[in-house]
Amino acid sequence: MFIKRIRPGNGDISENEVTPKGVYDQRRQIMKLGLGFGITAAVAGCDMMDGTDAEAAQVKGKLAYKPGPFSTHEKKTEYDAVTGYNNFYEFGTDKLDPAKYAASLNTRPWTVKIGGLCGKPQTIGIETLLKNALEERIYRLRCVEGWSMVIPWIGFPLASLIKQAEPNSKAKYVAFQTAEKPKEMRGLRSNVLDWPYVEGLRLDEALNPLAFLAVGLYGDLLPNQNGAPIRLVVPWKYGFKSIKSITDITFTERQPPTSWQRYGANEYGFYSNVNPNVDHPRWSQATERRIGEFRRRDTLMFNGYGDQVAGMYRNMDLKKFF
């Protein structure tokens, strides 16, 4: 799929209307550092490898992968911005906190427990997950706060892992949980959210070809601040749906609770599809600021992935099921 550029729209809102003053002030500091207006990053290239070379590459941080089926002509966000400007409240609410503090998270050993309504519950180690046929997918990321990036993820389709577990006929949803390690995740000491962080998808959403489990970006293993060692990427939804540092995947019959819905159900719905026609109660979702650009641009329905996902929401009231 290729996303076409469109002209920036009107109706811009200032960032201090979108976020609390403390966070707004923090972002002004980031802008002074240059993170918001483009950064020169030296990013090493990654050669395609196989066999023992691939195993050695993983140890060094590089990943063997092939081009995936989804990409975009849009300019990729600079590596330093992708890894330096994040929401990962387990390490703090400042956008710089994850890069500062996420190194404390020990991602080896790491396992993902898969259970619930399935025929083959299992626990899989990250080393086994890294042996999947990996591919690069360049996806747009749209944050609910009104900013966006374009990121080259490395990983594999979520559907492949789901099919391996064989969910039964009662399974209608998939629940995800982030690691809960208070000694390693300083943000867990706060009560900004109910911990551990949890998210969920309908089963058909999780099986959609766009749904992706990322283990790397820019050719390297996933940095801790971006959700190492494995995270979800669902590019047609707002970024908080793409849960990081996953430890549990559970098939359920009923819609599972999600962290931000618990925090404010009137602001953060279960579906949280990118929708420029449904505003957040405190700001417009019609436009976004691409990190590295000055002007705002129009937000696309489903973040530009409507051809792949719109059919799942046919006949649904997207203002009610936001």
Structure in words:
The chain is of the alpha+beta class. The chain folds into 2 domains: 40 residues, no CATH class; 248 residues, Alpha-Beta Complex (Sulfite Oxidase, Chain A, domain 2). Helices cover 20% and strands 21% of the residues. It contains 10 helices and 13 strands. The strands form 2 sheets. Strands 1, 4, 5, 8, 9, 10, 12 and 13 form an 8-stranded mixed β-sheet that branches. The chain has a 5-stranded mixed β-sheet with strand order 3-2-11-6-7. A hairpin with a 4-residue loop joins β4 and β5. The protein is globular. The N terminus is likely disordered.
Residue fraction in strands: 15-25%
Straight-line N-to-C gap: 25 Å
CATH class of the largest domain: Alpha Beta
Order of helices and strands: HHHEHHEEHEEHEEHEEEEHEEH
The Cα radius of gyration reads: 19 Å
Pfam family, one: Oxidored_molyb
Organism: Asticcacaulis machinosus
Protein name: Protein-methionine-sulfoxide reductase catalytic subunit MsrP
Catalytic activity: L-methionyl-[protein] + a quinone + H2O = L-methionyl-(R)-S-oxide-[protein] + a quinol; L-methionyl-[protein] + a quinone + H2O = L-methionyl-(S)-S-oxide-[protein] + a quinol
Short description:
This protein is of the alpha+beta class and 322 residues long. It is built from ten helices and 13 strands. The chain has two domains: 21-60, no CATH class; 66-313, Oxidoreductase, molybdopterin-binding domain (Sulfite Oxidase, Chain A, domain 2), CATH 3.90.420.
